[in-house]
Amino acid sequence: MMDQDSWRAAAAATGPGDRAAAEEGVRLAYRRAGLAEPERILWARSPREAVRTLMTAAHPDGSPLGTLGSGVRDTVVGAPWAAERHRLHGQLGPQGWSGHWRATGAALWESTRTLVDRIRAGIVEELATDRKEETQVRLLLLDAALGQHDAAWLCAFESGDDSPLGGLAAVARNAGWWWPYEKVAIVSERPLTLHRDEAGRLDRGDGPVLGYADGFELYAWRGMPVPRAFLDELTTLTAERIRGEENAELRRVMLEYYGYDRYLEESGAQPVHRDETGVLWRVELAGDEDVVMVEVVNSTPEPDGTSRTYWLRVPPATRTAREAAAWTFGLGAELYEPLQQT
């Protein structure tokens, strides 16, 4: 049985897994569900390619896909999960189960769920050209088992080779999403790249945060999905361009990349209050909340003798520099009496 760290690593694994082990896991999952093994196991380079294959009933090379049979996800995946959860819930009781889930898979699922949602949204956006195709794509995505992205649930249950979930675990250790049908199972490779920041958010400023071998890619900056062209533009930003961005969320990304202090300096911002704690600055943004920042000087000199200036963003309702400085320490203005300004 894999521990939490091992399942966390499996969820984030990139590059080819062991195909033979994944295929044996698929067959084992069918047998454990009381079904005949699939006649064929086909591989796709990404979940997008797998969905496209199912939509067109053709291999990526154009050859006919052949007969799939009915979808058996509920039998192969859903029923074993439900049975194991019912067993463990009965053994631990409601409070015990809740504590067990928090101690095992809950945190991993929080980070994995965002990635799963982004992949689904990206596939719908790329493959659906009208409402009818959108419905088709969404239904096909619901037919998928999540492979490595089921790691959070596998972490919470017994998933050794002899367990009811042994086959599902073997696939999750070595492959990405997969689609079980009566006669055919389609299995996706894992991504080639995955980038997160120290907070666990999808984040990369110079390329895709997620990339598969067939070219399916997702882009994000500090957790927010962005278009590829948007990232290319970040290196040439100006204060005027930021002001002209109509999408408030994209404008926030621009501000983070550009730097709030630099933006304030170059946008003609005016100080609205100053006192012994610092200077409060405000810039109005059309269709969005104001950018309000407090400028403070670290009274402890740098090694070269200079004093470093810090710009800290504070809530838009802030009215005084003291209130702003206090907020950064989690205090009210009336309680903020610094012995040394930092």
Structure write-up:
The protein is an alpha+beta fold and 342 residues long. The protein has two domains: 4-190, no CATH class; 239-335, no CATH class. It has 13 helices and twelve strands. A four-stranded antiparallel β-sheet has the order 9-10-11-12, with helices on both faces. Strands 1-3-2 form a three-stranded mixed β-sheet. Strands 4-5-6 form a three-stranded antiparallel β-sheet, with helices on one face. It starts with a helix and ends in a 14-residue tail after the last helix. The mean pLDDT is 88.
Shape: elongated
Q: What is the overall number of helices?
A: 13
What is the number of E strands? 12
Return the string of H and E elements: HHEHHHHHHEEEEEEEHHHHEEEEH
Write down the domain tally.
2
Strand order of the largest sheet: 9-10-11-12
Please estimate the helix content. 40-55%
Q: Which helices and strands, and how do they pair?
A:
Blueprint: H1 4-12, H2 19-32, E1 40-44, H3 47-56, H4 73-103, H5 106-127, H6 131-142, H7 151-156, H8 166-174, E2 178-180, E3 184-188, E4 193-194, E5 210-211, E6 217-218, E7 220-221, E8 224-225, H9 228-234, H10 239-244, H11 248-258, H12 260-266, E9 270-275, E10 278-283, E11 291-297, E12 309-314, H13 321-328
Parallel strand pairs: 1-3
Antiparallel strand pairs: 2-3, 4-5, 5-6, 7-8, 9-10, 10-11, 11-12
Helix pairs in contact: 2-8, 3-5, 5-6
Please provide a brief summary of the model.
With 342 residues, the chain is an alpha+beta fold. It has helices spanning 4-12, 19-32, 47-56, 73-103, 106-127, 131-142, 151-156, 166-174, 228-234, 239-244, 248-258, 260-266, 321-328, and strands at residues 40-44, 178-180, 184-188, 193-194, 210-211, 217-218, 220-221, 224-225, 270-275, 278-283, 291-297, 309-314. The mean pLDDT is 88.
